[in-house]
Structures are given as C-alpha cells and as structure tokens.
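Figure S4 source data
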Amino acid sequence: MSVAPTQAPRTTSLDDFAAWLPLMTEDELAVRDTTRRFVRQACMPRIREDFEHGRFHTGWIGDLGKLGLLGANLQGYGCPGISSVAYGLACLEVEACDSGLRSFVSVQTSLAMYAIWRFGTEEQKIKYLPKMAKGEIVGCFGLTEPNFGSDPANMATKAARDGDQWVLNGSKMWITNAQIADVSIVWARTGGDPGSIRGWIVEKGTPGFAAHDIPHKLSMRASFTGSLSLQDVRLPESARLPLGEGLKAPLACLDNARFGVAFGVLGAAQFCIERAVEYSRDRIQFGVPLAAKQLVQAPLAELASRWVQAALLSLHYGRLKDAGKLQPTQVSLMKRNNCRLALDAARTARELMGANGITGEYDVLRHANNLESTLTYEGTEQIHTLVIGRALTGVAAF
C-alpha cells in the first residue's frame, strides 16, 4: 500500500499579504532584486563577525557605488536618479542585513550628497558628487552636538568671518561615517539666532579639524560613529553652501534622510518576523512545533498586520515624495510608525526564540540593538510625536 507524501503546510509571505509588488515598476523591482542579491551574497556572510568586532567593512563602499545606491535618487552629476520608491526598497534590502550598513548609504546619499546637491554651488556639485556617487569620496553630516540633539537651533558651534575666510569652532557628536569621511558637512551659527545657521564643506586634513571614536557602543556596532572637533578651522568662502541659510536648510536634509530610514527599517522588521516564523515551525516543544501554539501565532499575526500597513504607507508616501507632495509631518508619521514597528518586531522575535534569541546565530538581538538607535536618530520618537500632535491640534508642545 502506497502512502501519500506529507505536504508542508502552505504559508503566506509578508510580500504576499501586502500584495504590493504589482504596484511597483520594473525598474523598481530590478533595484530591489539586485540589491537583495548583493546583500545576501556579499554582506550577510560576514555581518555577525563585523558587528561583534565593532567594525564597518569599507570594502563594500565601492560595491555600493557600482550598484548605484550612493546618491541613488539624486539627479545628475553621476547619480542614478531612481525613484524614491526604488531607493526605499534598496534601503529595505540593505537594512535586512544591518542598520549600520543602511546608515552608511543614508548618510552618504540623503545627508552629505543631498546637502551639496540642494544647497551647493555648481562648482561644488561637479567637484564632489560624481566621486561620492562612486564611493571614491565618503561624506558625513555634522549637525548634532554633545549638548544639543533634538534642539539644533541652539547649537554651540560658531562661525566668524575673518576677511575672506570663515573661522569655525565647536564640536559635533554621534556622526555616522565621521572617522572615514573625506568631506564633512558642518553646520554652525554666524550669529545669535537660528536664522544665522549656515553650512560648510570641511575636507579631511583641514588644520584644526579632527574626528574621534565613540567607545563602548552597544548599538550600530558595524558602523562608524564618531565625533568632530573644530578648533579655529579656517575655510574659504568657496567652502560654504551658499543656498543653505537658516535652520530650515539642515532640517530639510534630515527630512529627506528620514524617508530612507523609515523605509529601510521595514527590512529589519521583515527579517525578524520571517526568522521568528521559521524558528516557530522548526522548534519542537511538548511534541509539536511552537507554531502550533496560539500564544506564538497571535504576536506573529499582529506584527504581520502592522508590517503590511507600514509597507503600504511607505509605498504611498514614496509616490507622494516623487510627486513633490510629501509633507514633513507625513515623514514624521512614517518614521515614528515604522521604527516602532521594527523595534517591536525584533524584540518579539527575540522573545519567541527564548534563549536562542540572544545569540548572534539568529541575528534578531543584533537588529534589536541597532533599532534602539534608529528609534532615536533623525528625530526621536518623542519629537516626531510632538510634530504630529502640533499638526493635529495647531498647538506646539515642544
């Protein structure tokens, strides 16, 4: 008597639940697939060891440039000019590996390159952007200070005019890429009010300018994070970003970067949810898979529902961004919503895996540690809550 082979239960992926792939263009799907292959073949095999040793693999920088991920959604000057959705999908795939790797892409693209692209002179754009797009020049973005994070209007870094030069003094903190940056976009005040804030391009090796490590990081370990110090740094007028006037200039850069951060964390969330589902199907307890337990299925179903909502929101906001209609308050909502989802997904996955969840083998606690940072940088959850609250009520509560 023959016995019919046992068939594995049918499963539905997060992408299937969202049914969002048909809503993307062929070019967008191509960017997604190409980035996914690179991440899985080149990055995933070594990311655990890099995280454990607190290092960023600089060998990836040129590869990211060849893939067209640096300056990806900028137009001209050697930049690919892909859609915001395509860029968001690339960030998603990169962050499925590690938030530190995506942070490199975000800071290079959405902060350093974007600041030059939007506020710089034609000469500055020609000089820096093509090489930055190839990964030949690395950039960082110096806004946050040791005593001023969420309140950049009161930054202490000053710039004073001295003849045909500017003299900058101050310090910046929590700067991604600081230690390897060839150029740093540094913001400083030329007077006593936020309207006097201006931006400069500071090249590595400029006298009085230095980058320093931040020791003992427990998050974003596979990423360069440092501080910048400026002691009587003299810069010519040609180093200033002439169109970057007032606090609105650096905030516009941050608003641009938040989109990639918010889209990117969906990759970390997806990885953790899928890893928890896989583990629950393979792990046998009390004679049955963990997946057979209601207390396991319930949190997975909740996370899947929230991921689908966040994915469709991100796709819609990406279309609005390309149409020039995405508002800063909407970006705040997206960043707040997606970062909280991702952190909850990583923490829940760790919990469902029990003790195994704390090991590097399963990666979810590494993601959780990183996502503690994404919840904070580019605007804390509390600040974005108040931005949304002000938009709803018309009353500021900062």
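Figure S5 source data
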Amino acid sequence: MRRLGVADAVVVGLGAMLGAGIFVVFAPAAAAAGGTGLLLALTLAGFVAFCNATSSARLAAHYPESGGTYVYGRERLGPFAGFLAGWGFVVGKTASCAAMALTVGAYLWPGRARLVAVIAIAAVTAVNLRGVGKTALATKVLVGVVLGVLSLVVVVGLTGFAAERIGDVGSVGGGALSDAGGAGAPGVLTAAGLLFFAFAGYARIATLGEEVRDPGRTIPRAVPLALGMVLAIYLVLAVITLGVLGPDRLAASAAPLADVVTTVGLPGLAWVVRAGAAVAVTGVLLSLLAGVGRTLLAMARRRDVPVGLAAVHRVHRVPYRAELAVAVVVAAVVLVGDVRGAIGFSSCTVLVYYAITNAAALTLGRDPGRRLPVRLLAVLGLAGCVTLAVSLPPTSVGAGFGVLALGAGWYALRRRYLEHAGGR
C-alpha cells in the first residue's frame, strides 16, 4: 500500500541523514582536512550528493519500486551492475548500521556501549517490523527532537562565540576558519569521502519507492528538499563548531557538540546534547535498517540472494525475514566492530553504489520538463563518486573493494552454476 506523501518522504530522508555527520563524522573529517578544509569538504560532499540525488530522482520516477540502484542498474546497465550495486549497498549500509548502533551506545552508556547498541538494534527492528506507517511516525518524532537539540546548540554556540569575541578577539577557535589544514587537496578529498557518509540517507526515499503515493511526483520533490535542508544545517553547525572549538580540538573530540556547550560555559547542557545525539543516531539507524531490508527484498525477488528473504508479512507488508537477517548480522558486527573503520568502509562501498546510479542515469533520455543539466550532473556525480572513493583512507579502500570483489566472484560462480544446471 502506498501511504507516504512528499512531507512524509522528506521526513524519512531527514531522519536518515541527520545525526551521522554531526555526531560522528565531523571529528575525523577535521583531522583529515583542518578548518577551512572541513568546510570545503562538506560543500564538495554536498555537491556530489546533489548530483547523485538528481540521478536517483530521475531513475526512481522511471522505476518506482523497492531496491533503488539495484533495480536501476539491472534495468539500465545489466544484471551484473545491478547486483554489484545491491551488494555494495547491503554490505556498506550494514556497516553503517553497526556504526550508528555503536554511536548510540557510546553516547548513552560509554562503559557498556556494545550492550546498548544491541538493545538499540532490537528496538529499532521491532519498530520497522510493525510497518512503514509506524516507521514514518517514529521518524517524525525523532526528527523533531533532533532539530530542537541542534537549535539549542546553534543558539548557545553563537551566543558564547560572540561573547568570547567581544571579550577577547581571536581567543575562541584558534583561527579555525582561516586554517585549511596541513593535508591540502588530498586531505579535503579524504574528508569529503568521509562526510559523504552523512548525506547518503536520501537514498532511503528511493528505496521506499513502493510505499509512496504518486512516486513520479513525490520522489523527485522529496529528495532535493531533504538534501538541501540537511546541507544547510550541516554548514551552520560546522561553522559554529569550528568557531568555538577550532580544528585541533574538534579533530580530537569524541562528542563535538557537547564540547561546544561546555566550552562556552554551560556544561550542564552537555547531557541534553548527548541525549539528542542518541535520538538522532537512532533515527538514522531506523531508516538504515528499513532501507537495507528492502534492498534485500528486491535482490531476493530476483534470486541474487536466498529467495526466502523475499517473504513479506501478510499484515504489516514488510520484508520481515530480510529485516531480521540484517538485524542479526548488524548485532554480530557490533560485537567486534569499530566506529571509524565502519564509516570508511561504508563510504567506499556506497560511493561505488552511487557511481552506478549516475552511470545508469546517463542512459536515460532527455527530460524536457527539467531545467537542470541532468546529464552533466550525472557525469560530475560519477566522476565525484569515483574520486572520493579512492581518496578514502587506504584501509577503507582496500576493505571496500575487497568485499566488492568477493561479491563479484560469488555472482560469477552463481551464474556459471545456473547456466550449467540449465543446460542439463
């Protein structure tokens, strides 16, 4: 049943994106790129995401069904491209789910982060299994709470920053906005690759393609709206955080926004920010698990993964076996995983996913009603995805491409087996 309108789809996208970049990625990105370098990287990541969003929206309008680029790649580029996109999405977003769950644990109970992470996975899976209507409602509540907390950080940060500047010019931030970092262009590209992790949530709108009303109209409107709102929020918070903490303190911080309110003399609000962080990341986890489950559903329907995962609940109309399988794997990764490593790995595989998205969009004809140069944006998006993917830390690139190669090997062996069995 198609239940979601434009506003609901935008909220799903906001819930998927808000949190990861603000509470997780800013610190390692600042370490890679420095002060002004962080802002440049954020803008670059946002532009690549915009190119991808344009291509995703065009493709989703043509193929309004669950699966995202797994479907687009199959239909426009062939079965292997679709499989590689689906495989990259599933493994990359599984790592993302683990990173988000661990972040919830780190903010709520640092001494028992893994236990809290497993509990969060179980709770979010229970919400998703009740159906997309419950997911959308829960996401609306989460987004409202997060925006309230972020508004608090903005007001406190601006007030404190202005007061410090009046009392002692240049004492706060250590020249953050004029420091481009020591890594130069390579550092900016690495940071942009990491920050892309924060924008990838808009794909959740496309992967819910079977559940939105009038997808040809809803998806093209919802994707850029959600992306634009998140980019504006990220830029404001990045400037404030850099202005108060400076690039060095930001790079070393485990909880940058909590440190902002502490630095300006209001440490009592740190617990509010920590609670807000946990809520934000839970919202990301909510949408991530739903998106991965629906991609597995699409792959199972085409027998690229075990067909049993294609089962849909008779009442709630959700791919319950796929979502339960994802939850089990994510919980296992949480027990042995590392947050920053998971982010780099996820960014690499998801950038490959969006490279295939742009390549698929290039095969579409012209859109007479569009004013944007959509084919140029697809070319820039493809080039941007490849460049950012190979600019990530070497361990992330090696792990990401290694797992993609394993998936390609599985596909080749499976195809050979099916051809051999068919020839009997």
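The chain has one domain: 6-422. Residues 6-422 form a domain with the Amino acid/polyamine transporter I fold (CATH 1.20.1740.10).
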